[in-house]
Specification:
Keywords: DNA-binding, Sigma factor, Transcription, Transcription regulation. Pfam families: Sigma70_r2, Sigma70_r4_2. This is Putative sigma factor. Helix content is about 65%, strand content about 0%. It is mainly α and about 190 residues long.
Length: about 190
């Protein structure tokens, strides 16, 4: 079974903006960004990069996660005027990320190139194996697991940034980890 603790560096973890973790000015940043303040939106970007990337990584391959995450923030910046309640920014941004992932899957071609007969299969790293296993889980489990395992967020951080209750996060992490271990032990990733 892959070592889950080593997964984050292999997937290119982007550290969370720890210096902003306790600032209560988020709603003001959203209001300022809606008024066109790019610096305020940049603070929101730094605060929510790890959350958006976790959501995206839970739905698409690691190669595409950074580009799609960037696209989510670009779209959010362009459509920020559609957000009516600044306090709902985290949930709105998470919805934007999920919708972008769904659109990505719809636009993706369904044909897959098969290797030539007898050609050796390319090696698959443990991190990719774990990510595929996580992506096989339900969305609630995969998003919280990616935030925990890849981005290194604690349960309370996940709850704060997603709007879930701390109990829901604990349940999702526990059940998700149990299912993930079962998938990896079966080799069905």
């Amino acid at each position: 079974m892959p070592n889950l603790a080593r997964m984050a560096p292999a997937l290119g973890r982007v550290p969370d903006e720890a210096s902003m973790a306790g600032e209560p000015h988020e709603v003001e940043w959203v209001r300022a960004a809606k008024a066109g303040d790019a610096a305020a939106f940049q603070r929101l970007y730094r605060r929510y990069w790890a959350v958006v990337r976790s959501i995206v990584l839970a739905h698409v391959g690691w190669q595409e996660a950074d580009d799609i995450s960037q696209d989510v923030f670009l779209t959010a910046w362009q459509r920020l005027d559609q957000l009516q309640d600044p306090a709902r920014f985290p949930a709105w941004l998470a919805t934007c990320a999920r919708n972008r992932c769904h659109n990505h899957h719809r636009a993706k071609p369904t044909r897959v190139a098969m290797p030539e007969r007898g050609a050796p299969m390319p090696p698959v790293s443990e991190a990719r194996e774990v990510l595929r296993a996580i992506q096989a889980l339900s969305p609630a489990y995969r998003e919280t697991l990616v935030m925990r395992l890849v981005e290194g967020m604690s349960g309370p951080e996940i709850a704060k940034k997603t709007g879930l209750t701390p109990r829901s996060v604990r349940v999702n992490l526990h059940r998700g980890m149990t299912k993930l271990k079962a998938i990896l032990e079966e080799g069905g990733a």
